[in-house]
Amino acid sequence: MADNHCLFCKIISGEVPADLVHQDERCITIRDINAQAPTHVLVIPREHMESLDEASGRDEALLGHLLRVGARIANDEGHGDSGYRTVINTGAGAGQSVPHLHVHLLAGRPMNWPPG
Known about the structure:
Elements: H1 7-13, E1 20-23, E2 27-31, E3 39-45, H2 60-76, E4 84-87, E5 103-107
Antiparallel strand pairs: 1-2, 2-3, 3-5, 4-5
């Protein structure tokens, strides 16, 4: 169920514009407006879920779908050989700034470890 105050729910409904990369019946992907890498795409489930902590066993297929969509986009954009990173931030202390679960896909530059 959509949250009327959620930025990502507004993007999904078309109320707020975004640079759409992909969409299907379960998710949309958009380019991050505050990109942290040459490729920075957000994979967002259409269903509103505040964070990974809110996910349950019934959401396992959706979570897998989000990761597979991120991998397909990374490969489609030419990052399969050079590598890419997928990240889910959970909570403000981990850097989650929009309270709607989403996967960050980052690629196109060296990634350091540990992150953060």
